[in-house]
UniProtKB/TrEMBL annotation:
<protein>
    <recommendedName>
        <fullName>SsrA-binding protein</fullName>
    </recommendedName>
</protein>
<keyword id="KW-0963">Cytoplasm</keyword>
<dbReference type="InterPro" id="IPR020081">
    <property type="entry name" value="SsrA-bd_prot_CS"/>
</dbReference>
<dbReference type="InterPro" id="IPR000037">
    <property type="entry name" value="SsrA-bd_prot"/>
</dbReference>
<dbReference type="InterPro" id="IPR023620">
    <property type="entry name" value="SmpB"/>
</dbReference>
<dbReference type="Pfam" id="PF01668">
    <property type="entry name" value="SmpB"/>
</dbReference>
<comment type="function">
    <text>Required for rescue of stalled ribosomes mediated by trans-translation. Binds to transfer-messenger RNA (tmRNA), required for stable association of tmRNA with ribosomes. tmRNA and SmpB together mimic tRNA shape, replacing the anticodon stem-loop with SmpB. tmRNA is encoded by the ssrA gene; the 2 termini fold to resemble tRNA(Ala) and it encodes a 'tag peptide', a short internal open reading frame. During trans-translation Ala-aminoacylated tmRNA acts like a tRNA, entering the A-site of stalled ribosomes, displacing the stalled mRNA.</text>
</comment>
<keyword id="KW-0694">RNA-binding</keyword>
<comment type="similarity">
    <text>Belongs to the SmpB family.</text>
</comment>
Amino acid sequence: MLTIETREAEPVKEKGRKAIATNRKARHNYTILDTYEAGVALVGTEVKALREGKASLVDAFATIDDGEVWLRGLHIPEYGGGTWTNHAPRRTRKLLLHRREIDSLVGKIRDGNQTLVPLSMYFNDGRVKVELALAKGKQEHDKRADIARRTAEREIVREIGRRVKGIRG
């Protein structure tokens, strides 16, 4: 008797990191003190909208309420193929962190005038993650000083390049 064994095709797992959205203004407006990687609790239509690359971290920030971390202001537009089960675009989403990380954040935020700002959102091996930063707001003069420092460094690099090539400027 001949037995035929059938194997179902295994689903293809995503590997690596794929960026969804970045908050480019965060590094300009805040001094980054520490970063954390957090998972995000999402519903199905949100994940489908994110796979299309649609999300905005512009007004997003994180808060800690009753020992849980929440991401507020994140905009994920409604999924085009969704029906009445679609999600609310700006709903509050829970961030998934270890208890010791949450306790550490609570202590750091309570001590000084620091905040939690999302820097980027990405897929890591098929799971949605947020890079969360413990940050301190910059004053206007700090922003100007950073711009002046970057400009000076850029000029130094250019001058070194000119001297190596033998060009006088």
